[in-house]
Amino acid sequence: MIGLQIHPCRPDIAETTLNGDCQQPAQCRIQKCTTDFVSLTSHLNSAVDGFDSEFCKALRAYAGCTQRTSKACRGNLVYHSAVLGISDLMSQRNCSKDGPTSSTNPEITIIFKAHRECTDQKVYQAVTDDLPAAFVDGSTSGGDGDPKSLRIVERESGRSVEMHARYMGTTVFVRQLGRYLTLAIRMPEALAMAYEESQDLQLCVTGCPLGERIDDGQGQHGAVDSPEVAKLLLSPSSDVRENDLGQSGKIPKASCLLLGKDAAPES
């Protein structure tokens, strides 16, 4: 999973503001959660060693999926039945709630932190084959006035989404290429470079550490086979369209988090 936090000011001066952005009802995705669980377990054989371990991984992934869609599934009987069923199965198999999960889908989480007079906090989540054109709260924009200071634009249904943060001159691109999700950010160079030495993980400037990259056949980064990978191109001063995400050659492990919450000048 790749997580991104974007924060243009000090946390001590950020405050939530009300806005008049349009709301869209969030879609309950319990059917997709169930379909993914079935795909993860349909090939398992209970007579084979390691069945319980793999089944528990799939159950934890199933539980995580239901948690992410819980707000949109309130009152949905199928959802509540699934939650109870997961709990029963985990008890029967003595599965711990914490531990590794099986996942067929890469996941990206992007957090725009609250900034006074600009936007309240907005969270965007995407997984393979599910790139919503709205934030998790169902809204498509943030901030008062027109045009909005933060808005989502769908370029290709279910395949390409852009988030435009006008208040800090930044655009975030999320796309699906094949089975991978790709993430790119275009921002002012001064914003990308505004960090202290103690903040050593600056992916907008240096990308993922060498030890966290997967060998794509063109480099010598040490191969790690994982379904939870996403190609990453972070180029604060380049045009994203001139640097195709699929040709970046920088593929981070799922554990390589994109944390840029303090990579901005103080106001």
Automatic annotation (TrEMBL):
Belongs to the repulsive guidance molecule (RGM) family. GO terms for molecular function: coreceptor activity. InterPro entries: RGM (IPR040287), RGM_C (IPR009496), RGM_N (IPR010536). It is a lipid-anchor; GPI-anchor. It comes from Cervus elaphus hippelaphus (European red deer). The keyword Magnesium does not apply. Pfam families: RGM_C, RGM_N. Residues 102-221 form the Repulsive guidance molecule C-terminal domain. Keywords: Autocatalytic cleavage, Cell membrane, Glycoprotein, GPI-anchor, Lipoprotein, Membrane, Signal. It is found in: Cell membrane. This is RGM domain family member B. Its main location: membrane. GO terms for cellular component: plasma membrane; side of membrane. Residues 28-97 form the Repulsive guidance molecule N-terminal domain. GO terms for biological process: BMP signaling pathway. It comes from the Eukaryota. The keyword Metal-binding does not apply. Signal peptide: none annotated.
